[in-house]
Design brief:
single chain; 814 residues; alpha+beta; 4 domains; six-stranded mixed barrel; six-stranded mixed beta barrel; 50% helix
Length: 814
C-alpha cells in the first residue's frame, strides 16, 4: 500500500509538471467517457434495469392472434384462458379508455384504463395513499372506484391529502377515489395514464367475474392481458400451455378465423421498439471512446519518448521493468481517472439534454438518470481506458536502449522503430473507426432525408388538431352522438377564419386507426382468414377537403349520406388496386362496386376513390383504407382537424367557446398542430440521427487531431533529415509530398479497413434505415471522400511546417 501511495503521489507530480499535456489528454478522455456515460444512463434505465414491479422477470404480455395478426381478447376468451391455464399464478385484463372529469374547475379529458381488480396486485405495486383495487371491487354490482396517478393528484387536486374517499364525476358518473399511486409509477403501457377504474357494474361485458352471455362476449375483443408466470415456468412452457387451450377453444367454439394466443416478456414488450436504436448509439459512442484512447496513446508514446533518459537512469539505478511499468500505468490510470471525473460532469449535463431531446413516448423516460450503476460503469470504463491507452507506452518505455540513450545527441531512448510503428498503427485504427461511425451517420442522414421527403397524402400546413371524447352516458346512443357532431360541425365551420373542418375517429400519422376485414359482392367467398384487412375511418362530409386529400374518382360524402340513406364508402387507391387489380392492362373502375365488413350488414356502394394517406407513419408502405360517413357509423372518440391561418391561441379559444356552448362538460384535449404530430412521429429517428451525427463529428475531429499529432511529432523527430534534404535541393513540393504522402498512405489503409468494417457492422442498423441500404455506394463514397479531405488537411499542416525547416539551424542543433 505504501508503494502504491508513493506511485500515486509521483504520478500526480509528473502530470502537474506537464499541464498542457495533462489538459489535452483529460479533455479528450472526458469527451469519450462523458458521452459513454450519458448514453449508458439511457441504456441502463430503459434496457438493463428491471421493470419497477415485484419480480418483474415473471411478468408476461399476452396477446390474442387472429389470422396471424395481433388482436385483443374478448371478455369470454380472457375468462377461459384465466380458468384453464396451468402456467400463471394470475392473469389481469385492462382496456384503454378516455374519461371526462367534470365538477370543480374546467372539464378535463383523462387517459386511463379500466382494469380487473387484480391488476395492481399482479404488478405488485401498492398505493402511496389509500389503497389499490381489491377482489370485491371486481364483483358485479360493486361501487365504481378509481385510483389516480401521483402527477394527476398534484396537478388537478394540489396534492390534497383528503382526496381519498371523495366522489369524483367521471364521464357523468359518481366515482370514489380510493388511492393515489407512487410518484413515477407507470403501468404496463408506460404511457403515463392518469386514472384507473374498476369494471363498470352496468356493462355486462365488463363483469369479468360473472359468466354472462359468453357467446355474445366472444364476438368483440378489446381486452389486453398481463400474466405472472408461476415460479420455475418458462416462456416456452407457458406458450405450449396457451396453444393447448387455443386448440380446445377452437373445437368448443368453432370460428372461421383461427384464434390463438402469444406471449412475450413484459420487459420485451415495453422496450422492444427502441432496443436497436439505443444499442446502435451505445456502439457508436464506444467507437468514439476507442478513438479517444488511440489519441491519448499517441500522446503517451510521445511523452514516453521525451522521458527516455529518465527511464534509462532509473533502470541504471536498479529499477526493475515491472516497477517502471507499474509507475507508468499508475500515471495512465490517474489520467483516466481525471478524464472520468470530467466525463461524469459532462454526463450530468448530457443526461438532462438527452431527456429534453427524447420523444415523450420513449419508454421509462422518467427513470433515466445518473445512479450508482452508472457511476460504477463510469469508474470501470475509466480504469479500463487507463489500462488500454497506458499499457503500450509503459511497455515501450520500460525497455530503453541504455547504450544509445547515454550517447550524446541521441534523440530518445524509446523513440525506436517499435514506437514509430505503433503510432502508425494507431492512425490506421483511428481512421478506420472514424469511418465506421461516419458511414453510420451518413446512412442515417440519408435515410432521414428520404423519410421527410415522403408525401403524406395530405397537406399538414396550417392544420390544428385536437380531440374530444364522447364518453358520458349521455352519448351512449348513436343518435345523440350524431346530433352533437352535426351541430359541432356547423358551429366550427361558422368560426371566422376557418377554411376547413375535418372530424373523424382518428387522424393521419398518429397510427391509431381501427382495422376491419372486407368482402366484395360478386367475388367468391373465402375464409375470413384470407379477407383483406383494412384501416377503417369514420369522417364528416368535408374531411377530405379540410385535410387536403385529393379525390381521384367519384365523389366525397354529403349531408345526405346519413343513417337513413344507403350505405356508402370511399376507398383509397391502394384498396382499389387490391380489390380490383388491372386486367389485361386495363384498370377496373371501383365506382359502383359493393363491399361490406360485417356479414350481417347490408352491402355498401363505393362512391369515391382518394389518394393514399400515411396513417401509421411515414416509414410504412401505403396500406388499404376505407372511409365511412360518421352519420352512418358514429363513434365515441372524435379527432378534429381545423385548417386556418388564425393565431393558434385565438383559434383554440374560439373552439372551446363553441364546444362549451354545445355541452359545458365536454373537454377539448390534445391540441397540437399537424406539423407537431408529424415531428413527433419521427422524433426517435431524429434523436438517433442527431446523437449519431454528434458522435461522428467528434470521431472525425479526434481522428484529424490524431493524424496531425503523429505527423507533427514525426516532423520534429526528423528535423535533421529534413534539413539535409532541403540542403541537398529538395523543394517545398518535395517535402510536402514526402510528409503528406506518408500520412495519406496510413489514411488510405485505414479507409480500406474502415470500409470493410462498415460493410460488416452497418448491417446492424439495416432495420433503422428507410429507403437506403447499408451498402449504399453513394453514401460510402461521399463519406470516404469527406474523411480523405479532412485527413489531407490534417497532414498538410505539419507538412507545411516541415517546409519551413532552416537547414543551417537543423544541422547546427545536431
Amino acid at each position: 500500500m505504501q508503494t502504491l501511495w508513493q506511485d500515486l503521489l509521483f504520478g500526480l507530480r509528473m502530470l502537474a509538471k506537464k499541464p498542457g499535456f495533462t489538459a489535452v489528454a483529460v479533455l479528450t478522455l472526458a469527451l469519450g467517457i462523458g458521452a459513454n456515460t450519458a448514453i449508458f444512463s439511457v441504456v441502463n434505465a430503459v434496457l438493463l434495469r428491471p421493470l419497477p414491479y415485484r419480480e418483474p422477470q415473471q411478468l408476461v404480455w399476452v396477446r390474442e392472434v387472429q389470422a396471424k395478426q395481433q388482436a385483443n381478447f374478448s371478455p369470454a376468451e380472457f375468462l377461459d384462458y384465466q380458468a384453464q391455464n396451468q402456467s400463471f399464478t394470475e392473469m389481469a385484463a385492462y382496456r384503454l379508455m378516455s374519461f371526462t372529469l367534470t365538477g370543480a374547475g374546467e372539464p378535463e379529458q383523462l387517459n386511463g384504463l379500466i382494469v380487473t381488480a387484480n391488476f395492481f396486485s399482479l404488478l405488485g405495486v401498492p398505493a402511496e395513499r389509500g389503497r389499490v383495487f381489491q377482489a370485491e371491487d371486481g364483483r358485479a354490482g360493486a361501487p365504481r372506484v378509481a385510483v389516480i396517478s401521483h402527477d394527476f393528484w398534484q396537478k388537478r387536486f394540489g396534492g390534497d391529502p383528503n382526496l381519498i374517499g371523495q366522489t369524483l364525476t367521471i364521464s357523468g358518473e359518481p366515482v370514489t377515489a380510493i388511492g393515489v399511486m407512487p410518484a413515477g409509477f407507470q403501468d404496463s403501457n408506460q404511457t403515463g395514464h392518469q386514472i384507473w377504474l374498476n369494471p363498470h357494474q352496468v356493462v355486462p361485458d365488463w363483469q369479468l367475474n360473472a359468466r354472462v352471455d359468453l357467446l355474445t362476449l366472444r364476438q368483440t375483443g378489446y381486452l389486453r392481458v398481463l400474466a405472472r408466470l408461476k415460479p420455475g415456468v418458462g416462456l416456452q412452457q407457458a406458450q405450449t400451455d396457451l396453444d393447448t387451450i387455443a386448440a380446445r377453444l377452437q373445437q368448443q367454439y368453432p370460428r372461421p378465423i383461427g384464434h390463438g394466443a402469444r406471449l412475450m416478456s413484459l420487459h420485451e414488450q415495453v422496450v422492444g421498439n427502441v432496443r436497436s436504436a439505443l444499442l446502435i448509439l451505445l456502439g457508436a459512442v464506444g467507437l468514439v471512446l476507442l478513438i479517444a484512447c488511440a489519441n491519448v496513446t499517441s500522446l503517451m508514446l510521445a511523452r514516453a519518448a521525451a522521458r527516455g533518459k529518465e527511464m534509462v537512469i532509473r533502470t541504471a539505478l536498479g529499477a526493475r521493468r515491472g516497477q517502471i511499468v507499474r509507475q507508468l500505468l499508475t500515471e495512465s490510470v490517474l489520467l483516466a481517472g481525471l478524464g472520468g471525473a470530467g466525463g461524469w460532469l459532462l454526463a450530468v449535463w448530457g443526461v438532462d439534454l438527452l431527456v429534453s431531446l427524447s420523444p415523450r413516448d420513449l419508454p421509462r423516460l422518467s427513470e433515466i438518470g445518473l445512479d450508482y450503476q452508472v457511476f460504477g460503469f463510469t469508474l470501470g470504463v475509466s480504469v479500463l481506458t487507463g489500462l488500454v491507452f497506458g499499457l503500450a507506452p509503459a511497455l515501450a518505455a520500460s525497455k530503453p536502449d541504455l547504450n544509445a540513450a547515454l550517447k550524446e545527441g541521441t534523440r530518445s531512448a524509446t523513440a525506436g522503430t517499435g514506437g514509430h510503428r505503433l503510432r502508425q498503427t494507431l492512425i490506421v485504427a483511428e481512421v478506420a473507426l472514424a469511418l465506421v461511425v461516419l458511414i453510420g451517420a451518413g446512412l442515417l442522414l440519408s435515410s432521414f432525408t428520404r423519410l421527410l421527403a415522403v408525401k403524406p397524402g395530405f397537406d399538414p400546413q396550417h392544420l390544428l388538431t385536437m380531440r374530444i371524447g364522447l364518453t358520458d352516458a349521455r352519448y351512449s346512443k348513436g343518435q345523440e352522438r350524431r346530433r352533437l357532431v352535426s351541430e359541432l360541425n356547423a358551429r366550427l365551420e361558422a368560426i371566422p377564419g376557418i377554411e376547413g373542418v375535418g372530424i373523424c375517429d382518428d387522424l393521419p400519422i398518429a397510427g391509431t386507426d381501427s382495422t376491419t376485414r372486407l368482402s366484395v359482392e360478386g367475388q367468391p367467398s373465402v375464409s375470413p382468414d384470407d379477407l383483406l384487412p383494412v384501416g377503417l375511418h369514420v369522417i364528416n362530409p368535408h374531411y377530405f377537403d379540410a385535410l387536403g386529400i385529393r379525390l381521384l374518382k367519384g365523389r366525397s360524402f354529403t349531408d345526405r349520406d346519413d343513417v337513413n340513406g344507403p350505405s356508402v364508402f370511399v376507398i383509397n387507391e391502394t384498396l382499389a388496386r387490391r380489390l380490383w387489380p388491372p386486367k389485361d392492362g386495363k384498370e377496373e373502375d371501383p365506382l359502383g362496386k359493393r363491399i361490406r365488413y360485417n356479414s350481417s350488414d347490408p352491402w355498401g356502394e363505393v362512391v369515391g376513390v382518394v389518394e393514399d394517406v400515411k396513417y401509421d407513419g411515414l416509414h410504412l408502405a401505403s396500406s388499404p383504407h376505407l372511409y365511412e360517413p360518421y352519420q352512418q357509423n358514429s363513434w365515441s372518440f372524435l379527432a378534429i382537424a381545423l385548417r386556418s391561418q388564425l393565431d393558434q391561441a385565438a383559434l383554440v379559444a374560439a373552439v372551446q367557446r363553441e364546444v362549451r356552448a354545445l355541452d359545458p362538460h365536454l373537454p377539448v384535449s390534445g391540441v397540437r398542430t399537424m406539423d407537431e404530430v408529424m415531428a413527433q412521429s419521427v422524433a426517435t429517428r431524429r434523436l438517433v440521427l442527431t446523437l449519431f451525427s454528434l458522435f461522428a463529428s467528434v470521431a472525425l475531429l479526434l481522428a484529424a487531431i490524431g493524424i496531425y499529432g503523429v505527423l507533427a511529432y514525426s516532423v520534429t523527430q526528423r528535423t535533421r533529415e529534413l534539413g539535409i534534404r532541403i540542403a541537398l535541393g529538395a523543394t517545398t513540393r518535395d517535402v510536402l509530398r514526402l510528409i503528406v504522402g506518408q500520412g495519406m498512405k496510413l489514411v488510405s489503409l485505414g479507409i480500406v479497413i474502415g470500409l470493410a468494417g462498415a460493410l460488416a457492422l452497418n448491417q446492424l442498423i439495416e432495420k433503422s434505415l428507410f429507403g437506403v441500404k447499408a451498402t449504399d455506394p453513394l453514401t460510402l463514397t461521399m463519406i470516404a471522400l469527406l474523411l480523405t479531405a479532412v485527413a489531407s488537411l490534417a497532414c498538410y499542416v505539419p507538412a507545411r511546417r516541415a517546409t519551413k525547416v532552416d537547414p543551417m539551424i537543423a544541422l547546427r542543433s545536431e
